[in-house]
Amino acid sequence: MKKNFILGFFLCLIVLASIQLSKSTLIENALTDEFFSSDTILRIEEINKTNFTETNTSLEKQQEMKELLKGQKLSILEKSFDPLKAEYRIVSTSNPNDQIYIFVEENVIVFPHKSSRGYSIKNNHELIREVDFLLK
Questions:
Q1: What is this structure's pTM?
Q2: How far apart are CA 111 and CA 102, in angstroms?
Q3: Would you list the DSSP string of 102-120?
Q4: Cα dist from 22 to 15, 26, 110, 114, whole Å
Q5: 63-95 pLDDT, tens digit each
Q6: CB–CB of 69/131 below 8 Å?
Q7: Helices of type H across 23-136
Q8: In what order do the strands lie in the sheet with 99-103?
């Protein structure tokens, strides 16, 4: 009896751990390797309601931003976000499916080709602000 209880307890721990792990991912799982390539040019747009205005972000700053994003762990949020309320849209010119919408105030990013659910950056709550600073 005690053996079954201990076995059941460990099984519950494993299930809970897998649920927690499934709520997180790496940013590379949402974007292709091509997005992070130094050869890839990004189109970065500021969003104001329904107006998308392309920014003049240098290739050097684009590369810095890619390096900031690469390897970041993301937590999947339950809440959905309207892409038109984001501050920025970043699109890979070589693969239009590689898109990120950045919500600076909410500290959230959205990958619209996956869903409208948001992702927060784990262990680096300042990352979105750093990206915002680079883009200004």
A1: 0.77
A2: 9
A3: EETTTTEEE-TTT-SEEEE
A4: 11, 11, 17, 15
A5: 999 999 998 999 999 889 998 999 999 999 999
A6: yes
A7: 33-36, 59-69, 127-135
A8: 24-26, 73-80, 117-121, 108-110, 99-103, 88-92, 42-48, 51-54
Within-domain flag for 128: yes
Which CATH number characterizes residue 72's domain?
3.30.1490
Which residue, chain included where needed, has tokens 């392309």? 54
Q: How many domains does the chain have?
A: 1
What would the two tokens of residue 70 be?
């690469």
Tokens of 48: 């104001």
The two tokens of residue 135 are 């883009």
Distances 61 to 42, 120, 132 between C-alpha atoms, Å? 10, 22, 11
d(CA 70, CA 62): 12
* Residue 93 phi, psi (nearest 5): -70, -20
